[in-house]
Amino acid sequence: VTPSDLPSLRRWRNNPQINQQMIDNSYITPHHQRLWYERIRERVDQLHWVVWYKEIRTGYANIKGEGPIDSHEKLEEVGFYVGDSPVRHGLLGYAIEMLLLDIAFEYLSASQIPGEIVKTNYSARKLAQQLGYCEISENKNVIGVVLNSADYKIAKKKFIRYFSNARLNTL
Predict the structure, then answer these.
(1) What is the C-alpha to C-alpha distance for residues 53 and 107, in angstroms, rounded to an integer?
(2) Which H or E element spans position 51?
(3) Of 103, 99, 89, 80, nearest to 21 (Cα)?
(4) Across the strands, what pairs with 166?
(5) Which end of the chain, N or C, is more open, meaning fewer C-beta atoms within 10 Å of its C-beta?
(6) Who contacts 148 (Cβ-Cβ below 8 Å, separation ≥6)?
(7) 3-state class of 156 per DSSP?
(8) Which helix (H) or strand (E) holds 151?
(9) Shortest CA distance to 147 belongs to which of 101, 99, 81?
(10) Where are the alpha helices (DSSP H) in 2-116?
């Protein structure tokens, strides 16, 4: 994430279609966005990326831990959203999530990833279930999920054929 990404990230994050799927769905001002950026630049327990597809900024992704990100077997969460960009593809969400999970399990050696999904975000719940996440808790608004490496490896085999030509430019 760079300063030039901030207007797009803020616009996407405030978009009602994205915002209503977030646990924290407060409105983000330019000042709040800049403060967020300054905080994440210094964090050693998080990684943040802007997702580009066909040379167009198209989404956001992150991985969070509880200490230095490269020293975790169990991460705090992975998250992403596909922005409101001219580039849309039905598998884009799968590609972003699978890239995050590959980084978490293969490069960061995580053994398990917990997370939370807004209860009414049925597309995210379906994606999580298809990639091997198990729903482990539920409250009024949120579903708690967890994914272990072995379950992801099994689930990934169903989707990898769609990404056989994909390439990873940078981490």
Answers:
(1) 22
(2) strand 46-53
(3) 80
(4) none
(5) C
(6) 111, 112, 113, 132
(7) helix
(8) helix 149-156
(9) 101
(10) 6-14, 16-19, 30-42, 92-102
In angstroms, rounded to a whole number, what is the distance separating the alpha carbons of residues 118 and 123? 10
pTM reported for the whole predicted model: 0.86
Q: Is 54 left (phi over 0), alpha (psi -120 to 50) or beta?
A: left
Q: Which residue type is seen at 14?
A: N
CA distance to 43, 127, 142, 145, per residue, from 121 (Å): 28, 10, 9, 13
Angstrom distance (rounded) from CA 1 to CA 156 = 27
**Which residue carries 């975000």 as its tokens?**
121
Residue 48, SS3 per DSSP = strand
More confident residue, 30 or 68: 30
Tokens 């066909």 belong to 54
Gyration radius (Cα) of the chain, Å = 16
Using the structure block, give the residue that is written with the tokens 């399990």. 105
**At 134, is the secondary structure helix, strand, or coil?**
strand
pLDDT digits (tens, 9 = 90+) for 79-122: 999 887 787 777 888 889 999 999 999 988 888 999 999 999 99
Q: Single out the residue of 92, 90, 78 nearest to residue 149, CA to CA.
A: 78
What residues are paired with 52 via a beta bridge?
A: 57
